[in-house]
Write a structure and sequence with these properties.
Blueprint (H helix, E strand, L loop, with lengths): L1 E2 L7 E3 L7 E2 L6 E13 L6 E16 L2 E12 L6 E3 L1
Parallel strand pairs: 2-7, 3-6
Antiparallel strand pairs: 1-5, 4-5, 5-6
InterPro entries: PolX-like_BBD
Protein name: Retrovirus-related Pol polyprotein from transposon TNT 1-94-like beta-barrel domain-containing protein
Organism: Culex pipiens pipiens (Northern house mosquito)
C-alpha cells in the first residue's frame, strides 16, 4: 500500500491492533486535536505511547492491475511508532 500523494510507505496490517496508527503526522488530513491523549500499550513490555491528534489517511491499494483509493478515518498519530499499523 502507498499513501496517495507519496512514494510507497511500509504498512503493517496487525489484526491485534485496535486502531489505525501512523508515525508521521504529515500523512493525516482533517486533523483533530484530542482533548485527552490516547495511550497505546505496545508489544514491548511496559512501553506506552501517546497520541494527541487523529485524522483521515488516504491510501492507494493495488490489487492485481487495479488501483483502489482507500480512506481510513480516526487514524491516530503516534510519535515514536516503528511503522504504520492498519487494524
Amino acid at each position: 500500500m502507498a499513501f496517495a500523494s507519496d512514494a510507497p510507505v511500509r504498512q503493517a496490517v496487525d489484526s491485534g491492533a485496535s486502531t489505525h496508527m501512523v508515525n508521521d503526522d504529515r500523512d493525516l488530513e482533517d486533523v483533530e486535536m484530542l482533548e485527552e491523549p490516547l495511550e497505546i500499550s505496545t508489544a514491548k513490555s511496559g512501553e506506552t505511547l501517546r497520541s494527541f491528534k487523529k485524522g483521515t489517511v488516504r491510501l492507494q491499494s493495488v490489487v492485481g492491475n487495479k488501483i483502489n483509493d482507500v480512506e481510513l478515518y480516526d487514524v491516530f498519530f503516534i510519535p515514536g511508532l516503528d511503522e504504520n499499523l492498519l487494524s
